[in-house]
Write a structure and sequence with these properties.
OB fold (Dihydrolipoamide Acetyltransferase, E2P), Transcription Regulator spoIIAA, 2 domains, alpha/beta, elongated, single chain
Length: 182
């Protein structure tokens, strides 16, 4: 399926080194570019942590700009939290919770923009949707093979079914509307 969820953790090479990751942003950029070259319509989700000990404002802004420029579809943002028996606890530059929260909020807002842009790039295209949810407020949701979330009025005949659709528009709640393809 043309859907990838790839951990990055930070768009700052200094923080990646501090986290002892075995990659830097240049390798990550190459991998995303390779995916998009082979599968231009692929959805790429990214895990990122904010507020890691020692993360300066400059590190965060570097990470933010890196993510803003990267051809990805959404972010899964985690706010750093202390865990027992981890090396990160030995780093003295602890980021205050209020700053962690502010940075998380900024990246979540970026994620909303990224997802919207990705969804817009998929409009007019034909996909298969798996309807796998339940009746929520009179609607039923499903996902295309490249992870575009669609919504339609509840229809019990759609439960666990695959439907060919053409993506048409994005509603006010961020779901994609579609036309059933005959």
């Amino acid at each position: 399926m043309p859907h990838f969820h790839i951990p990055l953790q930070s768009g700052s090479d200094r923080i990646l080194k501090s986290m002892r990751r075995r990659y830097l942003t240049s390798l990550y950029t190459q991998r995303i570019a390779a995916i998009k070259e082979l599968m231009p319509h692929a959805c790429v989700g990214v895990d990122v942590i904010v507020g890691y000990p020692g993360e300066t404002e400059e590190d965060f802004l570097t990470s933010y700009r890196f993510l803003a420029d990267l051809e990805i579809s959404y972010l899964h943002v985690f706010t750093y939290s202390e865990r027992p028996n981890t090396e990160a606890l030995t780093i003295e530059e602890v980021i205050p919770q209020a700053i962690r929260n502010k940075r998380s909020k900024m990246l979540r807002a970026l994620s909303v923009k990224k997802r919207r842009a990705f969804y817009e790039s998929q409009l007019g295209k034909s996909y298969t949707v798996l309807f796998e949810g339940e009746n929520k407020k009179g609607y039923y949701t499903g996902f295309t093979e490249n992870y575009v979330k669609v919504r339609t009025p509840w229809n019990p005949k759609l439960v666990n079914s695959l439907q060919k659709v053409v993506l048409e528009s994005i509603d006010s709640e961020g779901y994609v509307r579609f036309e059933t393809k005959a």
